[in-house]
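Quick start: read one record
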Amino acid sequence: MAADKPDNTTGKTSGRAKGTKLRREPGKEPRRAPTAPAAPAGAAKASARQRRIVLAYGVLSAITLVLLVGVLLLPKADPASAAVADSNAVASLETEQEHEQAPRLEGEAVPLSEASTDATPPPETESVPRPEAVPVPAAAMLPRETAGQLYFVIDDAGYNLDQLEPFLEFPGALTIAVLPQLAYSTPAALSALAAGKEVILHQPMEAESGKDPGPGAIYVGDSPEQIQEVLARNLATVPGAIGMNNHMGSRATSDRATMESVLLDAAERNMYFLDSRTAVSTVVAETARSLGLSILERNVFLDNDPDRDSIDAAIREGMAIASRRGHAVMIGHVMVTELAEALHDLYPEMMEEGYELLPLSQLLSNGRDDALPAHAHPRD
C-alpha cells in the first residue's frame, strides 16, 4: 500500500477515509494491490556475508574433526617404558653430579648453587640459559711445590763497588753482608738496596788466630755496654741492615758471655743473627736457645776452594741439601769473581729444577733455624 502523500495545496492527506468501499468502473480492470518494492542493495550484501560466515564455520568444523580423529588413532605410550626412561634420566644426572663435585674440606666455602634454599627465593625473572660450569683442576688451586729454598749470602762487601756489581746484576734473591766503617760500606749498602737485595751487617769478631778482624770488631771480654756501642757505630755505616752475621769470629762465637750480649742487642733492634760457623766450637745456637731466641746457621761455604769446578760442586751440594731438608744457607765472598759467574750460569738450572731463591730473612719467618753440621772456615 502506497504511503500517503501530503497535499501541496491543503497540507491534508489525500487518501480515502477509513471504511469507504471501492467501486468498479465499467470497462476497467480492477486495480491490484501494488507489489512490495525490491530489497535494497545493502540487504543483499548482508546476506552474502552471512553465507561466507556459515562456510567458514563449516571448514573449521571439518578441520577440528580431522584432528580429533588423528589424536584418537595415535599409539598410546607404555607406562612401564616411561617409568624406565625417567629412572635412567635420574640415574644419569646423579652420576654426573658425583663426577663433577669434589669432596669438600671442613670449613670450605659453599658455592652459591649449593647454598640453603630456606631463605625467601628471589622474584622470578625471565629465564636465561645458564653457561655450563668449567671445572678448575685441583692442581691449579694448590700452592706449587718447590725442589727446595736456596739462601745465598755474599760476605765482605764494602771494600769497593766493582766487585759487588756482578752480584747486584744477579736476577735471583741475594743477601749482601757489608763490612762496617770502610770507605764503601755505605755506598755498598745503598747500592744493594737499590738493586732489590737484602742487606745485613757483616760484624767483625775476634778470631782464634789473632788476625785483625778490621774496624768495628767485637772482642772477648768486651762489656755489654761496649758491644752495644760498637754495634751502634757499625750499623750507622750500613744503612738498611736488618740482620747481622760474624766476620771471622771463631773465638768470639765460642764465648757464651760475648754472644749473649750480641744476641740480646740484636733482639732489641729486631735484627736476626746468622752464625757463619767459622768454628765447630760455636755456642751461638746454644746461647740463643737459653735466651729464647732464634738464629740462623750456615750450611755450605761456596768458595773455600775458589776455582770454578769447586764452586759449582759447592752450589750443587747446597741444592741437594735443600732438596732433602727444604732449605740451604750458602755463604760466598764478594771478591771471588768465579762465584758471580757460577751463580749467573747455574741460575737457569735452579729455576728449571724448581728451586726458590729467597732473602735470608724469609727463612727465619718460615720458622726454620736448624742447620746441618758445618766445618770451620779456614779463613777463620
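Strands lie at 148-157, 175-178, 198-205, 243-248, 272-275, 296-297, 300-301, 327-333, 355-357.
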